[in-house]
Amino acid sequence: MPDRPHVVALCGSLREESYTRKALRIALDEAENRGASVDLLDLRELDLPLFDGDDRDAGDAAELRERVRRADSVVLGTPVYHGSYSSVLKTALDYCGFDEFEHATVGLLCVAGGSFPITSLDHLRSVCRALNAWVVPHQVALPTVRSKFDGERLREERDAERVRTLGRRVVEYANIEPDPACPESLENVGATH
């Protein structure tokens, strides 16, 4: 890769001791080890009121969009709530759009207290497809997450390797040539095609 890719991770958890944030840091460390510059966009540090389409620049929305727009790859991380992704991540994604995600590479990661977290990743994949982003095939789900961490480190090497692989993939595919627009993005009200 001729240019150093830039990877931004959005942490969709507001918890102080967030497992999502810990897992994203592992992925970003691996991305940095692979030559990328990285940015952990911790949504608890931004003022993002519930999205109102009449006020797209509320709070820190402009900062959020600018930091995401600079990324070659974006990693979306979320805890699983009721089988889907968090409201704080939903709000952040609502403030973004095609300018931030079209043709971007996206990696997906979720953590769950229970044992079946996959639907949240399916929901995020659908959102990214509608924004014409390219989502890497490898995704990470960490079920029963309370037992997974020892401080900042994952206890099981197989879990750590899955998270590190996500960090590698978003660097490897940071500059993938985009496919033609998908039907979802062409039918999306915000589409600019």
UniProtKB/TrEMBL annotation:
SUPFAM superfamilies: Flavoproteins. It comes from the Archaea. Residues 6-144 form the NADPH-dependent FMN reductase-like domain. GO terms for molecular function: FMN binding; oxidoreductase activity. Signal peptide: none annotated. InterPro entries: Flavoprotein-like_sf (IPR029039), FMN_Rdtase-like_dom (IPR005025), NAD(P)H-dep_reductase (IPR050712). Its cofactor is [4Fe-4S] cluster. Coiled coil: none annotated. GO terms for cellular component: cytosol. Belongs to the SsuE family. Isf subfamily. This is NAD(P)H-dependent oxidoreductase. It comes from Halosimplex litoreum.
